[in-house]
């Protein structure tokens, strides 16, 4: 029996639409799949439309007196549900924005219980109009409609209401272009909703890709497909490179001392910052939808983004160079700083450098100049990991290999401890099979830090200058275990063990301290040999 994921009443994912009707149809269909119904509250046909949950608002008290003489049973579905979304026209497209994505009630288990499911759709309303004008009795009209649609739930009451509108001349086909919910919200699927295809930005314009393969972008919270990313063709890739190269040739003609750049580019950066602040909530919602992060975490990511934009506002000082008069006999020297271009990578939220840097593995294996790599086991403490990354950068190790179970090197605590080292040293993530293949291909000597002088099963090297000197010309990989569990059994079998001599009554060092000592000692003699 196939299990069905319960509805969580999520708001519709943000996207753009070509017109107002497409937006309304999309959000209503999505609401049905989540167990709630959306109605139009306010609308300006050419600018915006506000939709809310049909259980929003409250029952109006039509009796002015505080103690009415006649008491009657009052029932109302309105419970002031705060859910509300806004569709706004921006330039040539309609943009969906979530004003309040929370409900204060449970989802409907069966949409057939809702009164909207009894409405006639557009085609049925036309048929009713034609049969009423032809003189056919209402009972026969209803039987004819049920023959063509056995699931029709409209009652004679709905038919007579529609008949009255037709006779009074209040019939409007546009009012029936809305929708009729599915019979069950639990079994509803988003497959009927046309997913947004992501366009390529080439030459400053969004261009639809001609690729035939698309990758679905999944909302981790609801498993809904929110968009589709195309596999860009070779011709489209070459076109993007051409326009980027042409733009770089154009921009390198300007410097910070020219009026065009100074008075135009800097205000443009300020304008971009104001624009991003205005779309702050929209950007946070996109991060929440596509990466599964909480809204609070998405806001933190955007703060880092805005810091980069604010730094761009000071581009004039960043581009300052240096000038040395009479550096030599009749010789002046100067240096200039110019942008090298733009590089972008799309990757997953954690290990955000892992996907763009996958190719580094090949360079590490093939480069003759790389002699030493630091390998980190499964660390749970981001502070220790950040300290080790900082030590690896300080002692000029060539890269860091992260084994499964290791925490995110771009964790906030890890970044503070590393002082930005993950952005300056190559990081590669993989498993033991990748590490063993790398070791066999490049003939790397595998060492693992061990707290004890003796292992009992295999010898343990004692860290010393003599040991470091003997490894001066040898490609080396240093493996460090976690603080709590230490080295795994596989690490002890696969690597040679090395320990740091300590006083007899001292058991072990913190893994970050021990790793720093090992990396310094094993690198120092290697650096001398390389120079």
TrEMBL record:
Spans annotated as Disordered: 51-74
Protein's name according to its UniProt entry: Uncharacterized protein
Gene Ontology, cellular component aspect: mitochondrion
Residue ranges constituting the Aldehyde dehydrogenase domain according to the UniProt record: 206-361
Cross-referenced SUPFAM superfamilies: ALDH-like, alpha/beta knot
Keywords from the UniProt entry: Methyltransferase, Transferase
GO MF annotations, alphabetized: DNA-binding transcription factor activity, RNA polymerase II-specific; methylmalonate-semialdehyde dehydrogenase (acylating, NAD) activity; RNA binding; RNA methyltransferase activity
Domain of life of the organism encoding this protein: Eukaryota
Keyword RNA-binding belongs to the record: no
Positions with biased composition (Basic residues): 58-74
Organism: Chenopodium quinoa
